[in-house]
Design a protein that fits this description.
Layout: H1 5-15, H2 19-28, H3 33-51, E1 58-66, E2 71-79, H4 82-85, H5 88-104, H6 116-132, H7 140-155, E3 161-162, E4 165-169, H8 170-181, E5 186-194
Antiparallel strand pairs: 1-2, 2-5, 3-4
Length: 202
């Protein structure tokens, strides 16, 4: 079947993949846009996994201020080469990540960054609530597991739905950019401040 230029452009805008990759995905999916999108995301995940061990020490510290200075964000995003680090596409990604952090207040970059004591505390609260709500003992563990998953989806940046397209997570967004840019991308760290907010150190 014939694949239109408009479909290729639309898929490329959504995924960041190259023109040839988008055409092939649409051909393999027999013109089904959703299937082509899924194919490119799966490919992105596989390619991102291959590149995950490659050293990424270039990049940018992106700064963003929102609401006339009421919220401020700094995020360090790394890539492998200075050439890609200076590219418009990479800088745009860093800016999107800063916007995401400002809007959603994540606490951790990735799941592995959550201290065990934080997970234990959330699990304890879930267990207490399950008992107080009179839930059967047999489903308490399922309730605890569900609570922890919800906590991770809310507070882990990589697991959050992307604010501009909630059908994908931030990790999937980054995977798509890894494919498009051809380099490993790492969110190293971030900080978010809100006016008048106190921290555990205060």
């Amino acid at each position: 079947m014939e694949i239109s230029t408009e479909d290729i452009k639309k898929l490329r805008a959504s995924t960041g993949a190259g023109i040839l990759a988008c055409r092939k995905a649409l051909e393999d999916a027999e013109g089904d846009y959703s299937k082509a999108m899924d194919f490119l995301r799966e490919k992105g995940l596989a390619q991102a996994a291959k590149r995950a061990d490659r050293n990424a020490s270039e990049g940018v510290v992106e700064m963003y201020s929102h609401g006339n200075g009421r919220v401020g964000v700094m995020v360090e995003v790394n890539v492998e080469t200075d050439f890609v680090g200076r590219s418009e596409a990479f800088r745009a990604l860093a800016h999107e990540l800063a916007l995401q952090i400002a809007a959603t207040s994540p606490r951790f970059v990735k799941e592995e960054d959550i201290p065990q004591e934080v997970l234990d505390k959330e699990a304890h609260f879930a267990a207490v609530k399950a008992r107080e709500d009179g839930k059967p003992e047999s489903i308490h563990q399922r309730i605890i597991d569900g609570t922890l998953e919800k906590f991770k989806n809310e507070f882990v940046l990589m697991r959050q739905p992307y604010i501009r397209n909630e059908e994908i997570t931030i990790q999937q967004l980054i995977n798509e950019k890894v494919v498009a840019l051809g380099e490993n991308i790492v969110v190293r760290r971030f900080a978010r401040w809100a006016l008048g907010e106190t921290t555990s150190e205060d």
